[in-house]
Amino acid sequence: xxxxxxxxxxxxxxxxxxxxxxxxxxxxxxxxxxxxxxxxxxxxxxxxxxxxxxxxxxxxxxxxxxxxxxxxxxxxxxxxxxxxxxxxxxxxxxxxxxxxxxxxxxxxxxxxxxxxxxxxxxxxxxxxxxxxxxxxxxxxxxxxxxxxxxxxxxxxxxxxxxxxxxxxxxxxxxxxxxxxxxxxxxxxxxxxxxxxxxxxxxxxxxxxxxxxxxxxxxxxxxxxxxxxxxxxxxxxxxxxxxxxxxxxxxxxxxxxxxxxxxxxxxxxxxxxxxxxxxxxxxxxxxxxxxxxxxxxxxxxxxxxxxxxxxxxxxxxxxxxxxxxxxxxxxxxxxxxxxxxxxxxxxxxxxxxxxxxxxxxxxxxxxxxxxxxxxxxxxxxxx
Length: 382
Fold this sequence. Notes:
Shape: globular
Radius of gyration: 22 Å
CATH architecture of the largest domain: 2-Layer Sandwich
Oligomer: single chain
Low-confidence stretches: none
Mean pLDDT: 94
Strand content: 25-35%
Number of domains: 2
Helix content: 25-40%
CATH class of the largest domain: Alpha Beta
Structural class: alpha/beta
Distance between the termini: 44 Å
CATH superfamily of the largest domain: Dihydrodipicolinate Reductase, domain 2
CATH topology of the largest domain: Dihydrodipicolinate Reductase, domain 2
C-alpha cells in the first residue's frame, strides 16, 4: 500500500484539550495504528508541535514519538512540506493564527469557537473560501456514541413531530486550590475569551440544527455564580466571565429547546451531558454513550396523586437503543474525516462558516441577557 505523508502544524497542544483529545487520542492514536487507509492509500500524519514553551513541547514529542517541535509559528507556516494547520490555542489567539495559516495557503482545522466574534468568524470563512483552502472546525458532540444513536432515532421519524428539547450540561468546577480546579483559569476571564456561553453555545447550535431544526430565536440569562477563583499557581483572581447560562431556543416548526449549562452544578443525572427529546410519537434521552427511547405505544399512563405512593418508576418503561455502527473517540473520528477531506476531497460540511454561525448564536445570547429580551437569529449567513 502506498503511503502519503500529511504534514500537520499543531498549535496549542500543551493545553488539556489539545494534548489529550487532539494529540494523544487522535493524531498519535492514528499513528499508533499505522496511519489511516484512504482508498487504498495509507495516510501518515506527520505533526510538528508548536507552542510557546519548548521544554513542554519536547516532553510531549518524546511521549508520543514526535521528533519535530517548534516555538516559531511563522517558520512552520513557511514550510511547504506541512500543508495542514491545526489550532487548539486559547480562543483569543485563534483568529490571528488562522488568518496567517490561510494566507500561507494551508488547509486549516481548529477547535471551537473559531473566533471571539461572529464578524471575525465569518471573515475567516471568507478568507479560506477566497484562498481555496480546505477548512473545518471541531464539532465533536455530533460524534459521541450516545448522540450518534440519537441521530439515528430522529432521522428514522420514530419520535413524530418534534415538540421540545431539553439539554442539561455541566458539573462542579472547583473554584479553590483545595479542589484542584479542572479547567484553566482563562475560561473564567472575559478578556481571554472565557465564559460558558462562547464555549458551549457554539456546540448547542450545531446540535440543535443538525439533530432537530434551525434555531430561530434565543432568550438567555447568564450568571457569574463564583465571583472569584484560584488559578493554576494558587493566586486568587476575579472571575469576569459567566460560569452558567440558562436559555430557551425557538426552533423552526414551533419546537422549543431549553438549555441549562453550568460549571456550578453538582449533577444528579446519568451523564454530564444529557439531551431529552419529546415528540408526538415518542421520546428519547441521550448522554455521552447511551440513548434510550420511549415509544408512544409504550408510554405509561401517569396520574398525578401526591397523596398515594404508586408502584411506578418512570425509567422502567424506557428502551435502550442498540449500537448499529461502530463508534470510538469523537475527536479522532472527526480528525479522520478531515484528513479524508484533505487527501481525497471527501465531504466535510463542518467548515469555518458553520463555526461562525455557532459564535453568532453565542453573541445573540449575550445580547438577550444584557437586553432582557428575545433575540431573533438571522435567517441567512453573512
